[in-house]
Amino acid sequence: MGWSVYTLENDFFKRMDKSLKEDAGNLGITLLTHNQNNDPDEMLRGCKSLIAQDIDALVVSPCYPGYMEEIVDLAHEKDIPIVIVDIGDGGSDKDALIVSDCTAGGEAVAEYALSLLKDAPSHKKEMAVLKCESSAVYANRRGDAFISKVTDAGYEISAVEYANSDENIAYTKTKKMILYHPDITVLFAENDPMALGASRALKEAGKEDVLVFGFDGSQQAVNAIVEGEMSGTMLQDSEKMGRLGLETALQLLNKEIPAYDEPDNKVIYTGGYLIGKDGEMVNK
Length: 284
Prior knowledge:
With about 280 residues, the protein is of the alpha/beta class. Helices cover about 45% and strands about 20% of the residues. The protein has nine helices and twelve strands. The longest helix is centred in the middle third of the chain and has 17 residues, at about 100-120. The two termini are about 35 Å apart.
């Protein structure tokens, strides 16, 4: 079986990689692995290489979903089932997509942010959002749901920027953002690395009163929450995602139909938990 991981520089994907490899080892499955290193061209090259080695199934956590259609087509030419874990499917005819319910997660973050603002002194009603790559359709639902919820509550979204899931890009974008929009009260980033980059920029600017939220539940984000540099993050169970990716690939090899939550789109949702200001679970 083949396994191509987004990157091993991010705690979220490290946990996913570890659980998938452990389960494969316990089941006696030979696993050919590939690290995309968050490089779209490397992702495409590596997945093509795995397919050329006549693997039985391919599990991918894509750094660039835009290449998934080509990868899926190549795999299906050899009757190799494809399971995508997280990020998005790029509109491909994959066999399964395993992802957290990003809409529900974005709404949960928005509701928690609004609850914190109720207890705050008078504040400006401006918020901002940092988004993942535009091709990361499912991840983008986090910000979209957040925006819908807070605008319904009477808040204004002053800025929306794509920071491509990258901490350093988010840092730079946030520095510019607060120059033009100094009254931002809340900043939501669609993943934790971007939230950490935003937090760093805000701290340097002396704007530590801005509430920063992320999405992933990485250890770095939890540490930042405990230290008061972030206000919350939505924990995705990446270990469960990894295990479910392998399990679903095996089901497909055995000609079984996975338990899709959205059968028409072949989507399987995993749950999540909100980690709040004290570093504890809010909605267990």
